[in-house]
């Protein structure tokens, strides 16, 4: 018997054409994707149909000002930051310092493409600002991608959020005996062909 229980704090449902959308288990991330000064995290979700959605979850309030928790705490139009139809299925999403042009970027892994984006605001008045998805750079993959991971990869890790130190690198694993890209910003300096076939594995699951 557990002393704890869970409650729905926020949820989002997608209504579209009667067709259910499918998502990969890695096509999800949470971070301050729009680089808001408040630091509030946003939730990004990608689908195998190529739809990228970014939400800014907030607590719902009743008319009496009380915070409303439970199944009725659905997302509304104000919670949606952006919804974009991309050209290819989305396999995985990662957030990090991948470009000197943006503190927090969004890396999107497609079957044959790795693209890095930034959420950009335009407009003068805060209430009238529009959000757009700006592609910073991309790397085409010679083989079908399986997954990716990011980090310093042997370089000294620094607090990139405060001092804009070393850029994070992105490593992509493909399904055909190769790790093709250790991507650092717009360059791809490292590629290694392995003798044995690599077995793609979802983090947290047994091999």
From TrEMBL:
InterPro entries: PHTB1_N_dom, PTHB1. One of its GO terms (cellular component) is membrane. It holds the Pfam family PHTB1_N. One of its GO terms (biological process) is cilium assembly. Residues 1-174 form the PTHB1 N-terminal domain. It comes from the Eukaryota. This is PTHB1-like protein. It comes from Chloropicon roscoffensis.
């Amino acid at each position: 018997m557990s002393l704890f229980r869970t409650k729905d704090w926020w949820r989002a449902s997608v209504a579209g054409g009667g067709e259910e959308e499918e998502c990969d288990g890695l096509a999800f991330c949470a971070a301050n994707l729009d680089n808001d000064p408040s630091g509030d995290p946003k939730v990004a979700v990608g689908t195998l149909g190529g739809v990228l959605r970014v939400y800014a979850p907030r607590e719902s309030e009743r008319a009496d000002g009380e915070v409303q928790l439970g199944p009725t705490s659905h997302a509304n139009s104000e919670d949606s930051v952006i919804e974009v139809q991309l050209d290819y299925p989305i396999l995985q999403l990662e957030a990090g310092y991948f470009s000197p042009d943006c503190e927090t970027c969004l890396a999107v892994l497609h079957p044959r493409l790795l693209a890095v984006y930034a959420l950009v605001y335009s407009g003068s008045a805060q209430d009238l600002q529009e959000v757009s998805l700006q592609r910073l750079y991309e790397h085409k993959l010679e083989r079908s991608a399986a997954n990716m991971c990011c980090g310093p990869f042997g370089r000294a890790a620094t607090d990139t959020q405060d001092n804009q130190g070393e850029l994070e690198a992105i490593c992509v694993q493909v399904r055909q005996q190769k790790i093709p890209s250790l991507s650092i910003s717009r360059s791809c300096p490292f590629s290694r062909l392995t003798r044995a076939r690599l077995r793609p594995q979802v983090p947290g699951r047994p091999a």
